[in-house]
Amino acid sequence: MALAIRQDTSYLGKDRWKWSVWLDGSSEELDDIESVRYILHATFLDPVRTVNNRSTNFRLDTTGWGTFKLHVKAVHKDGSETSLEHQLVLLYPEGMPAAS
């Protein structure tokens, strides 16, 4: 299995979402990762965030209002890096019209 980014979202109301992203892969692949650096949109306060917690699959939890492409660097224990990208998808609850 190749490393990939997965996401979860929850609509908070007023065009804001709570969202999470994490690294997905085999146990062997994830055990080889030291940390994951998430590069968020430049409008975020502290747009570069590093997560070292293997037990959560390097999960990042935050909130926001818009979609963007995340750039991700998985830093391996040997110092090498794997670059990944993920388009964040934020959907309104079913039956709710998008804000205009």
Architecture overview:
The protein is mostly beta strands and 100 residues long. It has one domain (4-87): Immunoglobulin-like (Sandwich). The chain is 5% helix and 50% strand. Strands 4-3-6-7 form a four-stranded antiparallel beta sheet. A three-stranded antiparallel beta sheet has the order 1-2-5, with no helix packed on it. The radius of gyration is 15 Å and the shape is elongated.
Explain briefly what this protein structure is.
The protein is built from one helix and seven strands; from the N terminus they run ββαβββββ. With about 100 residues, it is mostly beta strands.
Strand neighbour order, sheet with most strands: 4-3-6-7
CATH fold node name: Immunoglobulin-like
| Poorly predicted ranges | none
Major sheet characteristics: 4 strands, antiparallel
- Cα-to-Cα separation, first versus last residue: 41 Å
Overall pLDDT score: 94
Task: Provide the descriptors you would attach to this structure in a database record.
100 residues, mainly beta, Immunoglobulin-like, four-stranded antiparallel β-sheet, three-stranded antiparallel β-sheet
Ordered list of secondary-structure elements with their pairings:
Blueprint (H helix, E strand, L loop, with lengths): L3 E10 L2 E9 L2 H5 L1 E7 L8 E4 L8 E5 L4 E8 L4 E7 L13
